[in-house]
Amino acid sequence: MRRITVRFADLDIEFVDRDVALRQVEDWANKSTWYPVVIFGPEGCGKTAFLRQTVQAIRELDYNVLYLHPLDRVFMAEVDEPDVKSLFLDLVRQTLADEKWGRIALAVFDLVRELLRRRKRRVAVIADDVFQAIGLNNAAAYVKGLLNMIEHPVYDYEKIVILIATSEGLSRSEIGRHRWAHLTPMWNMPREGFQQLYEKVPGPKPPFNEVWKWTGGNPNALRELYIAGWSRDAVVAQLIREKDLTPDFIAKWRDWLERAVEDPEALWSPDIPEELKAELIRRNLIIYNMYDRDQVFWVDQPPPERDLELGIGRDVAWQTPLHREAVRRALKEYRV
């Protein structure tokens, strides 16, 4: 399979690792996905790069592919029908002009029908962070529409693959209320694969073991460190601002947060206030209710059962060690 080139800060780097996940893509392509597969996981864990590599992988398996990533304004129609591709590109131009992102997301249904009307074929829809484009309140209905496309097609298909990625913790609970999708987590990169990415970053840099302890294998965390000249303090300060770790938030939840930075499993307590749990999920600080570590439940390799150095518990984990460090730093700075 040809490996694509992905943008990493000011670098163009060949896609590395995720071999287990790409074998799963081949398996999905051979069998079809019987439900839309919704992939969630830590922000910056590499879902977007994986989906773009998936476009290449599944195209090589004789699929017609529609790819949408409204937030990055990236759209691809790798299809055999020139007029369907032309229609798709017209919709993209119109959407880029008026930024009505829901239009292109909903157009997928008509475009797939048009492809299948011409002839029975293999079709894939790959959507990245599309829920932000259509609104979280419409996420479940959108997934139900994709499921109907699998279960009740207007025209027969040979095989169909539908993959959707989201980094929004709240969208997981919204979609999980129904049995319309297969929710599948992806974790940060495994150590060996992450080291391959680390070694592709040029110039002087901290030892790999240090970078691993800071990032836990998160590609975007590596990118942010590279942009910041490898200043962990600068990245942590930025996270404190981005995650709105204000003095009042810290003061309100200090006891719980002090326990959680030592062991995220403290947040699995039945006594945890629902408000705090919801806020930590909404701010993408933690992954809550982690899946069993059996490979069958995960895209690519699952994280360890427990690794306190990286902030991983059995049921709850910090998205990266830097996220945990941002909370730890705020606790220290805002101490009364």
> Taking Cα atoms only, what radius of gyration do you get, to the nearest Å?
21 Å
Task: Kindly state the percentage of residues in helix.
Answer: 40-55%
- Per the CATH scheme, the topology name of the largest domain is Rossmann fold
| Overall number of domains | 2
Task: Quote the average pLDDT.
Answer: 94
CATH architecture of the largest domain: 3-Layer(aba) Sandwich
Q: In CATH, what is the class of the largest domain?
A: Alpha Beta
Strand segment tally: 10
Order of helices and strands: EEHEHEEHHEHHEHEHHHHHHEEH
Distance between the termini: 57 Å
Biggest sheet, strands in spatial order? Answer: 5-4-6-7-3-8
General description of the model:
- The protein is an alpha/beta fold and 336 residues long.
- The protein has two domains: 5-185, Rossmann fold (3-Layer(aba) Sandwich), CATH 3.40.50; 191-333, no CATH class.
- The protein has helices spanning 19-31, 47-59, 82-98, 101-118, 130-134, 139-151, 169-176, 191-200, 208-215, 219-227, 232-242, 247-262, 274-282, 321-333; strands spanning 5-8, 11-14, 37-40, 64-69, 74-78, 122-128, 159-166, 182-185, 286-288, 316-318.
- The strands form three sheets. Strands 5-4-6-7-3-8 form a six-stranded mixed beta sheet, sandwiched between helices. Strands 1-2 form a two-stranded antiparallel sheet. A two-stranded antiparallel sheet has the order 9-10.
- A hairpin with a 2-residue loop joins strand 1 (5-8) and strand 2 (11-14).
- Helix 12 (247-262) packs across helix 14.
- The longest helix is centred in the first third of the chain and has 18 residues, at 101-118.
- The chain is globular and about 65 Å long.
- The termini are far apart.
